[in-house]
Amino acid sequence: MGNRICKLFGIKYPIIQAGMVWCSGWRLASAVSNNGGLGLIGAGSMHSETLREHIQKIKLATDQPFGVNVPLFHPEMDAILNIIMEEKVPIVFTSAGSPKKYTVWLKERGIIVAHVIASSAFALKCEEAGVDAIVAEGFEAGGHNGKEETTTMTLIPAVRKVTSLPLLAAGGIGTGEAMLAAMALGADGVQIGSRFAISEESSAHPDFKKLVTGLKEGDTKLALKKIGAVRLIKNEFFQEINKLEQEGATPDALRILLGRGRAKKGMFEGDLVEGELEIGQVSAIINEVLPVKTIIENLVQEYQKAKERMNTEQFEF
Asked: Which residues pair with 15 in a beta bridge?
């Protein structure tokens, strides 16, 4: 499965674990890296010194490449960047902001940079900024999302049309068959969040993981578009948000209800009623909590079987 994503990051499989808040600590990231993918520590839910601790621990847990995902609105951004430099992090994925802001700074320090986008217009900005790779994330994804609601199947060929940069598909990918489909559309690899969020090594609360394994189609929905679109499980907190939005609530009113620490309360502490529960649409086909090793083995086997089937079956038009 070696290709230019594998060569760029120095990994066996073109499988990247998303840097998810409250899920992507050093245990999850090192497990993914140790099994042939690229593990990312999710800095979005960490104070700067907590991030340093996770970076130091992952260095002890793996000798394989790893990276850090940094949302560009992080309130401790200067400290985060200094730690990334001091700890010699080899790869950084940036998101939720302009790729021009820090790409040059990072690359001048020898760091490989990928940026997450949700439109072909931002893909062009990534190319202008000089990033090494692009993550195109469709609206099926969990967590923060493109408010335009462009699906992965539409987004990947649109982005591929405007850029020749290495391209990772994200959003709705949790099987090897989906991985093959994304690559058929023009992606060089995939970034997977929800499937790894519900792994044994994820730092998400066990009650959150159990809840996700019982979700069905339609049990998640994009919300909070006025202050930052995010895909949520339809729990009691979501119903409050949804009611306010239908009544035309202002952004300030939504921020007051959201408050602080709502995602931690839900995904990390396991409050399934009042917590903000972020997960992707692919959760509808995640029905068990598995170790990362098994998840990656399944992805690779499913990909290979699907590819063989497409090569051997004859299609008449």
From this structure: 190
Instruction: Give yes or no: residues 161 and 266 share one domain.
Output: no
Which residues face 240 on adjacent strands?
none
Written as six digits, the tokens of 261 are 């620490």
CB 252 within 8 A of CB 164: no
Give 170-191 pLDDT, tens digit per residue. Answer: 999 999 999 999 999 999 999 9
Q: Label the pairing between strands 143-144 and 112-117.
A: unpaired
| Whether residue 180 sits in one domain with residue 52 | yes
* Residue 89, CA distances (Å) to 53, 54, 82, 285, 305 in order: 13, 11, 10, 34, 35
Measured distance CA(24)–CA(248) in Å, rounded = 34
Q: Which residues pair with 192 in a beta bridge?
A: 17
**How many domains does the chain contain in total?**
2
Task: State which residues form the domain around 222.
Answer: 214-282
| Long-range contacts of residues 310-313, Cβ cutoff 8 Å, at least 24 apart | 310/180
How does residue 316 score in pLDDT terms, banded at 50, 70 and 90?
Answer: low
Check whether residue 106 and residue 145 sit in a common domain: yes
Instruction: Report CA 36 to chain centroid distance, whole Å.
Output: 17
pTM: 0.95
Contacts of 282 (CB under 8 A, 6+ apart): 140, 172, 173, 174, 178, 194, 195
pLDDT in tens, 110-149: 999 999 999 999 999 999 999 999 999 999 999 888 888 9
